[in-house]
Amino acid sequence: MIRPGSLRESIRAAISEVLQPHSAVLAGWEGGSAAFDAVDDYSDIDLNFLVTDDVSLDELYSAAEDALNKLSPITLRHDSPPGRYYRLRDSDEFLLIDLCFVRVAAADHYLDFARHGTACRIFDKAE
After folding, report:
1. Which CATH number goes with the domain that contains 90?
2. Residues of the domain holding 86
3. How does pLDDT run across 65-77, given as a tens digit for each residue?
4. Domain assignment present for 126
5. Do the Cβ atoms of 98 and 12 come closer than 8 Å?
6. Which of 12-21, 76-85, 106-115 comes out lowest in average pLDDT?
7. Strand, coil or helix: what is 23?
C-alpha cells in the first residue's frame, strides 16, 4: 500500500495536471479538512474545480478518472451530484476522493469561510 500522505499529494497533482490545461477549467482548490488545516490519517481529499457553464462534465470526469487509474485502479465510484466519490485500490479505507466540478453560474461555489474554511488554492487562471 502507498503511504496515505504521498498518495494524497499524488492524487491532487495527477488530477490538477490533466484539468489545469483545459480551457473550460478556470480554477482548482482543495477544501474539506485541508481548508481547516486538519488533515489526518482519516481525512478524505476534497478537490473542487470551477468550470464554464457549457463544458461537458463527463469529459472532465473521464480525464480525471484516467489520471487516477494511472496512479492506482479505481475500485469504487459513487455519483452524488454535484460531485463523484472514488476509492483507489492502493489507498486505505479512509482516503476517499471527493471530486466536484462547480459551474460559474452555480449559486454556491463552496467558498464561504465559516462553512468551508480557507480553500487551498491549486491554481487560479484569473489570479
Report:
1. 3.30.460.10
2. 4-102+112-121
3. 999 999 999 999 9
4. no
5. no
6. 106-115
7. coil
Across 54-79, average pLDDT: 96
Secondary structure E strands in 1-127: 25-30, 45-51, 74-80, 83-88, 97-103, 120-124
Length of the chain: 127
Task: Please write down the long-range contacts of 49-52, taking CB distance under 8 Å and 24 or more positions apart.
Answer: 49/19, 49/25, 49/99, 49/100, 49/101, 49/102, 50/25, 50/26, 50/102, 50/103, 50/104, 50/109, 51/24, 51/25, 51/26, 51/101, 51/102, 51/103, 51/104, 52/24, 52/26, 52/103, 52/104
| End-to-end Cα separation, the chain, in angstroms | 37
Domain assignment of residue 56, yes or no = yes
Count of domains observed in the chain: 1
Nearest to 52 by CA among 70, 27, 74, 82: 27
Round the average pLDDT of the chain to a whole number and report it.
89
